[in-house]
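Quick one: structure for this chain?
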Amino acid sequence: MSLERALSLDVDEIADVIESVGFECTDCGDCCTSDNEPLAVTVFPDERRRLARAADSSPDEVAEPSPFGGNETFEWTVRRDACGDCFFHRNDACSVYEDRPSVCRTYPFAVRFDDAAGEDTEAERSFELGDATLVVGECEGTGRTVTRKEAVELAREVKKRAVKEEREARAVVEEYERVEPPDGAVVVHDSEGAHVVERDG
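Got it. Here's what it folds into:
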């Protein structure tokens, strides 16, 4: 099971890869803005509430149903502005940096449990971690010096995210109950059940 595999991830092994790749955030904002592809920053239910508190807003004002799906989806994403950029990216900075989601905390690193990680691409490299894979996305911050302490701290966040993703996925399956959305609405299924959300526009 992927949850058990996530729990057994070795933080030092992840840190070894991060150290070998090298990383330092340059605050370029590329991961916060839309280019040619839709920006979709996944958020967990607790992160959705935390972002709402940080922005003094409601959860529906800071997160929206994933853009990848029809009238039923299985994840929330950070709300985007009219340009497709992250709702919280303001004046070339994150307005909720201390409360940013785990996807942002770990970018450009992520763990996958696919049996085959696939071929490396120009935008993505992968490193084996036993029966898991550490994927490194395209980012101008890679290749820069990182201390062992920083690598370990980031590795802990990467493992924490992997465990959280697997727990969420398991809970979504357990909580799933088919709900037919009314016209003009979408249903988001998460670990806390089904949520009917009116579509924007």
